[in-house]
Each structure stands twice: as C-alpha cells, then as structure tokens.
Amino acid sequence: MRASDFPRDTPHLSSILAKGEGTLANGGSCIAGPDGKWIVEPFTGEEKLIVATIDHQHVRKERQNFDPSGHYSRPDVLQLKINRQRQSTISFGE
Predict the structure, then answer these.
(1) Has residue 48 got a pLDDT over 70?
(2) Residue 18 burial (C-beta neighbours within 10 Å; 0-12, 13-18, 19+)
(3) DSSP letter string over 14-25?
(4) Total of domains in the chain
(5) What domain range includes position 54?
(6) C-beta separation of 41 from 30 below 8 A
(7) Which of 5, 17, 20, 67 would give a disulfide with 24, using CB separation of 3.0 to 4.6 Å?
C-alpha cells in the first residue's frame, strides 16, 4: 500500500500519510503456528509459494488455551444471540 493508493478524499489522509515513509504496508507473507510462534518467518520483496505442514495435535492443544467465555471474556463487547424464529425464504405482504 503506497501513499498514491489512497483516494484524495480519504478522511484524515494527511495524518495517515504523515507516519508513513512511502510504503505503508509491504504485503509480506508468513505462517504463524497455533501458539503464535513463526513456522515461516515474515518475508517481503519477492514472490514465492510458502507451504508448511502442521501437527493437528498441536492445534488441539493450543485450543485448550483459548476460553472465549472464561474470566477474560468481554460480554460488553461481544455477545452471541440466537434467533429461534422459523426462517423462510418467502414472506407475503398485504
């Protein structure tokens, strides 16, 4: 993402571009593991295909570390609401 990629009417454009040095995002690629550690470190500046094999047991193990409804949940920010009304693809108006 270059400064020239922004439309001139972008809100706060001068503030956004003030902190950039020509390139605001370089489009790098990487692969992060389920524990957040790099499997393939981030790289930029070249095109290449990155592939990795992951251990599904590692994925399951790390899922035990994530408790979305535990002590650090934020019900003031995120809630699950279930609509139990019967859904239909058609409705009739009078």
Answers:
(1) yes
(2) exposed
(3) HHHHHT-BSBS-
(4) 1
(5) 3-63
(6) yes
(7) 20
Does a structural domain hold residue 84?
Answer: no
pLDDT in tens, 16-36: 888 777 777 777 899 999 888
Residue 41 covered by a domain: yes
Residue 79 is assigned to a structural domain of this protein: no
Q: Are strands 29-32 and 38-43 parallel, antiparallel or unpaired?
A: antiparallel
pTM: 0.48
Position 71 in a domain: no
d(CA 66, CA 32): 16
Tokens 């108006």 -> residue: 93
